[in-house]
Amino acid sequence: MTGAAGVGVGIDIGGTKTVAALVAADGTVLRRRRAPTPAGAGPAAVLDTAAGLAAQLLDTAAGPIGVGTAGTVDPATGGIRYATESLPGWAGTPVAAELAERLGRPARVVNDVHAAALGESWVGAGRDRAHLLLVAVGTGLGGALVRHGRLDPGARGAAGAVAHLPAPGAGRLRCGCGRYGHLEAVASGTGLAAGYAHATGERVTGREVAARATAGDAAAREVLDRAGASLGAALAGLVCVLDPEVVLVAGGAAGALLPAATTAYAAELPSGWAGVPLLPAALGVDAVVVGAARLAITPEED
Q: What is the number of structural domains in the chain?
């Protein structure tokens, strides 16, 4: 069952905000609703907020709703297998079942970065590419694979989890998973902040590190260049394993890391994959809701 005239509702559930959008068959966002995510109030309050926003848009959309959410999503059940403390108590929440009960229609649920990759594949920078890898560089680091317009979630819903790849120079920096030496500990907003604190003793945000690098702060520039180089080298290696047509970089820290990442990517990429470009993603903050709506509009595979 698909949305009326190809119209779908997508929801983006994040640690700080929740957004619902009505999206047309060509990927255009027609209407949008937004509210703070009541993360501290528990999963039921988060689900109530998401359902309340979506309910305001369902008058012109039939069929299921699509959801992109923080956390690792079980592809068989639409429940949360793993989540960080950005959404306390979110792990174990049966998101698909709970939203279906609240809204009276099925819900198709994926990780938010997976939804963003689907959106970029549909109407973004990966449009008309059969195979793509997307990496989202924000507070943390995430990734996703799309093949022939369909997500490849992996056996556990965690395919594309680039955050935990080993990264040279990250041995003293702690990843969000609690271990040391991973790519997220260098190439993410928290990684930039940690790297700068290690170098200078001063604690500032990753965004501030990027701003200081632009303003000429040598320590900030070194941290940023190291992060970009680590990211680019890792992506070159992943291209050899996954063989995508294009690699996209999304997220709030993408712009700051892309120059150094692009240089390292080109230097490390073997000649057999020389034609695989590294590009910025195109949909910005709408990527998750657009990809989630695509889930609602597209029939499930048999």
A: 2
209/245 same-domain check: yes
Residue 234 lies in a domain: yes
What digits encode the pLDDT tens for the residues 196-236?
999 999 999 999 999 999 999 999 999 999 999 999 999 99
Contact assessment for residue 60 and residue 4, using Cβ atoms and an 8 Å cutoff: yes
d(CA 18, CA 174): 28
Q: Determine the 3-state secondary structure of 130 from DSSP.
A: coil
Asked if residue 165 and residue 276 are part of one domain, the reply reads yes
DSSP line for 197-232: HHHHS----HHHHHHHHHTT-HHHHHHHHHHHHHHH
Pairwise CA distance, residues 168 & 143, whole Å? 19
Q: What tens digit of pLDDT does each residue of 258-292 get?
A: 999 999 999 999 999 999 999 999 999 999 999 99
Question: Residue 235: phi, psi to the nearest 5?
Answer: -65, -35
Domain of residue 100 covers 4-118+285-297
* Beta partners for residue 29, in sequence order: 23
Residue-by-residue DSSP string for 80-124 = EEE--TTSTT-TT--HHHHHHHHHTS-EEEEEHHHHHHHHHHHHS
Residue 64 sits in a domain whose CATH number is 3.30.420.40
Is there a single domain that holds both residue 11 and residue 75?
yes
> The whole model's pTM is what?
0.93
178 contact partners, CB below 8 Å, separation of at least 6: none
Q: Say whether both 66 and 170 belong to one domain.
A: no
Has residue 185 been placed in a domain? yes
Query: Is residue 259, in this structure, part of any structural domain at all?
Result: yes
Helix (H/G/I), strand (E/B), else coil: 15? coil
The predicted structure's pLDDT at residue 176:
81
At which residue do the structure tokens 């965004």 appear?
207
